[in-house]
Amino acid sequence: MATRKLYYEDGQQASFTATVLSCTPVEKGYEVILDRTAFYPEGGGQACDLGTLGTAQVLDVQEQGEQVVHLCDCALEAGTCVEGCIQWPHRFDLMQQHTGEHILSGLIFKKYGYQNSGFHVGKDVMEVDFDGPIPPEDLWALEEEANSLIWQNLPVHCYYPAKEELPYIPYRTKRALPWPVRIVEIPGGDICACCGIHVAFTGQVGLIKILSCVSLRGGVRLELVCGQRAYRYMANIFGQNREVSRILSAKMPETAAAVQSLQAHYNEEKYRANALQKKVFDSIAAGYTGQHLAVHFEDGLNGGGVRDLAQAIGQYAAVAVVCSGSDDAVYSICIYSEREDVSAFGKNAIHSLNGRGGGKKEAVQGTVNATKAQIVHYFDALSASTAGAQGE
Known about the structure:
8 helices; Elongation Factor Tu (Ef-tu), domain 3; 35% helix; Diaminopimelate Epimerase, Chain A, domain 1
């Protein structure tokens, strides 16, 4: 017996009564089939409805042939009448996303002739793929037009046209479909073959916000949010911008200019700091003039700073070893020479000091898990053995 699909008769229906036709135990619960249901099954990139059937929680809904199967967490007795309740906020969110996608996809099809080649409503955002490129500068106009159609509160008409009428309806589809075909029509927005559920009027979508557009297999993937998701996203962005406004002592519409000014000031200070650091490094390096193996510890350097100081010392010593870090964590290390090939020497040193790293003949860099005393002892021993070999 085919399940009567109430969600196609009234997409706004949140509760119903039905007769349990069968209840089959499975690995993850019980598969319940009803004579009719308002629970929309997963399909076409849209998640299924959630809610309750009597005392049972509906965990999943799938379509199998002409029947709709509800995965429940407990058994329901066949032949009994149960009340079904849709988790409406979840359902309404899915309808907002799906209807918003129709509006935007319809406008893109009219403007470029592109088909929607992929559609997925995720937990936080919706992804929609198109089979052609969209210039980034066109996105704002598309978004504005889509929202204009929403605010006109147009009817969303879902219907099954007669067999003889179908060939004359200019609906978009990726492939030829056999009759009967369900059509979703939004005046001025979209005419599309679709088995999903939608809001009754475009105004219920509320808002469409495009978040990103990336190239994908010759086309593009748009990431967007609609309705409640769009509101929450914009509210979050507003809150963050308000905090930026407070920190920068700038009006909220002027935070971008304030950040640009801050970035310019930062770049100036960074250039100045780099020049001062170079002078400091040159002064440190001069103290190692004439040494063969110079080992130096300097606090507060990142990997780039360790390398720069090693290069500076390498102007005065044959081999420079620079470390920065602490005994409680790890030391960043760079072994550098302009005169000798230190690739094997440096890798052996890092390995011997329980570290990881690599490099080329002029420089080896990485981290070592050893104390300062252990590092000093290791290189002192190397210096002593080298001096002894030279004396012999």
